[in-house]
Amino acid sequence: MEHLRRFFSGEGRTIVKLVIYMAVCLSVLVYLVTLIGNISLFAHERSYKAELADVTGLLPNDSVKIAGVAVGRVKSIKAHRGRAVVTFSVKKDVPMRSSTQVGVRWRNVIGQKYFYVYPGSSGRKLTNKDVIPVSQSLPSADIGEFLNSVGPILKAIDPTQVNTFVDALVQALQGNEDKVRSLIGNTAAVADTLGSLDTKTGRIIDNFDQVLGAVAERDSALDQTVTNLSSVSKTLADNNAALQGLVSNFAAVQAQLRQLLAEHRGDVDTAVNNLQTIAGVLGQHRADLEKSLATLSSGLAPYHLISSYGQWFQIRVVVACLARETSCSSETLVTDVIHPASAGPAHPSGPNLGNLIAFAGSSAS
Predict the structure, then answer these.
(1) Cys-Cys crosslink for 55: which of 71, 84, 194, 327, Cβ 3.0 to 4.6 Å?
(2) How many CB atoms lie within 10 A of CB 360?
């Protein structure tokens, strides 16, 4: 005890302080190494492999994330048959299934990236020997390609024209702040209204999707329709002269019709007025007209029966001869009926058989 007291009271105290300082520095150094090197100490992880078409910017020890949370790190990157094979580790408590998808995302604007895992909900669990195929890899957005594609457009823009446009826009907005605020407010109101109609908008989109599906199912019919329209267009083009003549004739007919109406405007007005008068009279006697039309068919039926064989009336005549009559024949009776004797007395009744036969004979002649 005496030796320990002497040790801590003299130079030993300095040594203890130095040891504590070195331990703290070593702990901080280990923490920085694990943080910078993305090394997980005392972590239980499983290793998997994945094939990707392009992993430019991805390096070993880069983070592996799921839903934005770091769950592992990239162990190694190798090339195999023209594709990149990435070996990465994930914590054991993170399930990995055969439907899992992978990809590479941008970490910052200086080109650093990290490995991203899109966990699947179906399929069997992956083992260390399983490899996620390239068909389940998602392409990453390439800022370089975007800038290369936008470069020609930016070069084609004239700075002078851009400045002129900006100046005109600024001058148009100056003094109209209230209108701009009102426009922004109205836009917000429209957006709120559309947001409240989310269900109807979704239903419209679903119906539109069904319409597009029906149109896609009738692709051959639409193609035939387009072909027929092309044929019709070709036919009309071949008959262009006839169509021009038709248009010219139609214009001439229209001009003549206009002239005819102008010359006979009074007669047309008179005819229209007479039609109005006739319509009024028919309206007043509507009941009598309906009654006449109802009995018209029965009244015309006998005339139809006797005239159905041609433009004459077919009438059956019964000739009766008296006893001891010296001359009796159908020809004599018909002749007497058609040409009655002038001395004979007139029959007191109305139209008789002779009148009908005479009427039929005159109609036939």
Answers:
(1) 84
(2) 17
Residue 115 CB burial class (10 angstroms; 0-12, 13-18, ≥19): buried
Q: Please give the backbone phi and psi of residue 22, each rounded to the nearest 5 degrees, phi first.
A: -65, -35
CB hemisphere CA count around 156 (13 angstroms):
5
Closest CA to 135 of 107, 183, 102: 102
Could you give the angle at which helices 198-217 and 177-196 cross, rounded to 10 degrees? 70
Q: How far is Cα 126 from Cα 132, in angstroms, rounded to an integer? A: 9
| Residues above pLDDT 70, as percent of the chain | 79
Closest by Cα among 125, 55, 44, 46 to 89: 46
Say if CB 113 and CB 104 are below 8 A apart: yes
Please state, in angstroms and as integers, the Cα–Cα distance from residue 289 to each residue in 201, 282, 301, following that order: 59, 7, 19
Other Cβ atoms closer than 10 A to 64: 25
Spatial distance between the Cα atoms of 314 and 298, rounded to a whole number of angstroms: 19
Q: Per-residue pLDDT tens for 271-318?
A: 888 888 888 888 888 888 888 888 877 777 777 777 777 666 666 666
Residue 74, beta-bridge partner list: 88
Mean pLDDT of the chain: 79
Q: CA 168, 171, 172: angle at the middle one, nearest 5? A: 85
**Residue 345 near residue 359 (C-beta atoms within 8 A):** no
Closest CA to 88 of 78, 27, 68: 78
Q: Burial letters for 307-329: b for 16+ Cβ neighbours within 10 Å, e otherwise?
A: eeeeeebeeeeeeeeeeeeeeee
What does the pLDDT read at residue 262?
A: 85
Q: Report pLDDT for 312.
A: 67
User: Does residue 242 carry a pLDDT above 60?
Assistant: yes
Contact 79/85 with Cβ under 8 angstroms?
yes
Indicate the pairing of strand 101-106 with strand 137-138.
parallel
pLDDT class of 365 with cuts at 50, 70, 90: very low
